[in-house]
Specification:
This protein is an alpha+beta fold. 44% of the residues lie in helices and 20% in strands. Strand 3 and strand 4 form a beta hairpin. The chain is elongated and about 100 Å long.
Length: 123
């Protein structure tokens, strides 16, 4: 009889500990889920805003941006969601173009316009 109350106290402490652990796990799962959801939304927006104006290939990654932390530390690299990482902007028309359709900063359409300026009306 004298040991039963000790066992009840131990069981109660164990249950409370298990409840605490499950609460922490649920909170961590929720944070991870929110992070994945935010990433998916940002990626979807990146793909639908930035695409090649010639072949309509969507952006596949955000640009990287370095943030200087201090003199003795290496700079942190973060995702810059305001620019695509695999598309370049044409210097003539300022439209986003994939690597296949750009050469020395000029897209394929602008290069054709440079060669034949009378085609400007139809392109």
């Amino acid at each position: 009889m004298s040991d039963e109350w000790k066992k009840l106290v131990d069981d109660k402490i164990e249950r409370e500990h298990q409840q605490e652990v499950t609460k922490k796990q649920k909170a961590e799962n929720k944070v991870a889920w929110m992070y994945r959801l935010e990433y998916a939304i940002r990626f979807w927006l990146l793909q639908h805003i930035f695409f090649c104006h010639i072949c309509h290939t969507h952006a596949t990654k955000p640009a990287k941006q370095e943030i200087d932390v201090g003199d003795y530390k290496a700079p942190d690299v973060i995702d810059d969601w305001s620019q695509p990482g695999d598309l370049e902007q044409c210097v003539k028309c300022c439209k986003w173009t994939c690597e296949e359709h750009i050469h020395k900063g000029i897209c394929q359409k602008c290069a054709i316009r440079l060669k034949r300026p009378w085609l400007l009306r139809w392109l």
